[in-house]
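pinging the channel bc i need a second pair of eyes. not urgent but kinda urgent?? the chain im working w is below, pasted from the shared doc
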Amino acid sequence: MSVINRIEIASLLNKHGDVSSPWEAKMRHLVLNLRGQSTAMNMENGFGKTTLSDALIGMLSRDRTLTQKTRRKMSPSKDGHPWTHIRVEFNYTSATDSQSDILAMAGDNVGGEQWVFGMYGHSDTDAGYYFYPGRLEQLPVHSTTADGKLQLFSNEHIQHSFRQVKPERVKDRESWLDAMSLHISRKELEQLASFQKEGGADKSQIFNAIKPRPGEKADQAFFYEVLAPQILAGASHGETDESEEFIEELVINSGRKVSELRHQISENNKDLERNDAKKTRLEELNKTASQLGIAQSERNQCREQLSDQAACMAVLSSHGIPGVPVACEENTEDLTEEVRLAQELAIRVGETAPLVALSTLAEVTGTSARKIETWFESRQLAGFRSDKTPIVYHPHASWSAGKATRLYPADKARDLLSESHDLFKDDNHRIKTIELLAEAADSFFDLDSNPFRENYLADQEFQKTLRSELAELKDKRRSLE
């Protein structure tokens, strides 16, 4: 809710009558400090009470008729006259503020946030409108000279102040009324403008227009038709309808609206209860769906385990040899070089060291198989024949489909190849080949489907560690003895 704190008028109403006469403002500069109070203004006849009312209500409501009347009494643009200024400073107090009664005791200032709404211009040019949060002094229109005389600021000075303060300069009426509705409702502004255009409080037309109904006195008719709508419009903050001319109509319409709102609230409560029931049911369904999802996931895991076990049983039933390497994807282009090489390795039944085929060594070294076999025989490494040794190998091993080939322990073959320089293009080729064989041997065990082989290898390494530690302890005991 807002009240008017101060009113400022500058350069309004020519003393000599029409604007075409020499201009001399009757209201050169006028400040009315209402301090947010309900105030009655007493001025002599002809001073300009009606002009002041037209200007204020016209500026606040942007009513075209009142605005045109006011513009005819603003200063002309010729001879460098400064603009006419009509400004109102509001005190805005929200419903949450601590001051319960906006109309404080007489003589006390009403608290709240200050807002300034203003209008400026000449009688022969378009008027400008602006508003900003603050006080009148933030954008002054006058100053006092050194000799104590009042001086109105030039239009250039006002434009400079506009650029500094940066008020909201509104052109269209709707935006202006939207901003003004924080302080005065549109309905109240319409009633004020209509009342002022009909003659206002200083004319008698309004009394002549009152027509008492049968059995109604003149003072009662005046109350019901004039005072009561104004009072109720203020109490309802301008929310009444334009068709409500009598207080009875307002009461009846208000009661009807209350009944409609009560019915709507009842229906909304029923809808809310139904929605709450739906929400509870949806939550239960969501919980059940979550449980079903978990059950389906467990079922799928069981299916995968059963599928793996079935595949394993099928392999064991057809081959009868534990530790058959798993099959990789059919698309071998996506496999790395060490994985492709690992598929070429094999392993003897009951052993843990991988074997590498002679043809595979010839392929990775880029030399002939006969040359490699001669080199191994010179180093007393004979190897094993694939057709006379029970071995386990990958289904994709290229050498398994051909003639019988010779297989060598991968670690020993790697050590002997590292000593040869004639089997490789250069040292870089030799180092890369040796590293590739080592990585392929590690990848080979990743292809192993025997769940016990990894544990067996770990136990072997653990036994070696225990034997080494036992030997060290025996040596220490002998040294102590």
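so The mean pLDDT is 81. and Residues 332-450 form one domain. — does that match what u expected or am i reading it wrong
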